[in-house]
Amino acid sequence: MTRKTYRAMQVTTPGVLELVERQIPAPGRGEVLIAVEACGICGADAADIEGADPALQPPRVPGHEVVGRIVALGDAVPSIWKAGQRVGVGRLGGHCNECAQCRQGRFALCRNQPFVGASCDGGYAEMMLARGTGLVSIPDELNSEEAAPILCAGIATFNALKKCGAEAGDLVAVFGIGGLGHMAVQYARKMGFKVAAIGRGEDIAQLAERLGAHVYIDTARETAADRLNTLGGARAIIVTTADASAASPLASGLAPGGRLVLLGTGKDPLAISAGLLVGGERSVLGSITGSPYENEKALNFSVLTGVRPMIETMPLENAPEAYKRMKSGDVKFRMVLTMGSNRHAQP
Asked: Largest alpha-carbon pair distance within the chain?
């Protein structure tokens, strides 16, 4: 490589993104160096940016929906990865292959992997180091900007639907039609479920229908659980928000044996009657994103079925503005940073 430095957006002060120049690092054992082409801005980035440790040196680079090309490989990287190959990295930065969870093949639950953008540097940058075990192969049919959000919002909702216990033809509800929810509705429709989208306001109704919902439930006009029960009860409800007070009442809209699947990571407790769970053998399930292999399945399913995130793009240098827009909710539905200078990066 002829370049010696790269641009990165780091969190020098909590809540503040600063554009800096850094020296390009060499990948260590088991690592690759990626020339980033696109990085999505996720709601989870807020905790990394607002809660950054000001004593950390160098300051952390956020971002965990990263797509780019391998430009250098360290020792002992698996042979499936080659220089010039387009890859992605999601929130889970690469499993250790040693802990009990890895030995069971449950790589998404590895206890020794970094969280990209939080405990290791992420993709708000032109270059990024990544563990080989965290790499995801990106299909040629997806451009980098649309692939990036699938590495987080896509895999999170895709895996949640796979775990929800529903079968083709069953009623599945999606609560929250935003960055996660707009992907969940599309996937649910393509998986053959009867889809109920739950949002607030009639302005979302037409969008929900375009995304694939059979039914739209406006919580400003009716109680979601009551409406679900008139439809026979939901086999599963995918909750894409972290609002426990809004999620808790939904459980009474589950059919017997139904599952309330939580994706949001709020700290408030859920208030759900034990009788509701026991009497109908209903359950509550938390669902994390997924392993690199599972991420590839989500990407390939997206290609096969035409599922795509709705995105807006901004260049890396506009990351502070893009981040503020994401926080304000003024994005439909995913913001993606682009690094145009890396489009033709060479190893």
From this structure: 66
pLDDT band at 17, cuts 50/70/90?
very high
Q: Report the pLDDT value the prediction gives residue 346, as an integer from 0 to 100.
A: 45
Residue 344: predicted pLDDT: 46
Do the strands 31-41 and 16-23 form a parallel or antiparallel pair, or are they unpaired?
Answer: unpaired
Mean pLDDT value across the chain: 94
Element (H, E) at 20: strand 16-23
Closest CA to 225 of 207, 250, 201: 250
Give the Cβ contact number of residue 16 at 10 Å: 13
Query: How many DSSP H helices and E strands does the chain contain?
Result: 11, 15
pLDDT digits (tens, 9 = 90+) for 286-345: 999 999 999 999 999 999 999 999 999 999 999 999 999 998 888 888 999 999 766 544
Helix (H) or strand (E) holding 197: strand 194-199
Residues 70, 34 contacting (CB under 8 angstroms): yes
Whole-angstrom distance, CA of residue 129 vs CA of residue 72: 10
Place of tokens 């990209």: 116
pTM as predicted: 0.93
Looking at residue 225, what DSSP letter applies?
H
* Mean pLDDT along residues 208-213: 96
Question: Are the beta carbons of 272 and 237 closer than 8 angstroms?
Answer: no
* Percentage with pLDDT > 70 across the chain: 98
* Cα 117 to Cα 337: distance, rounded to the nearest angstrom: 14
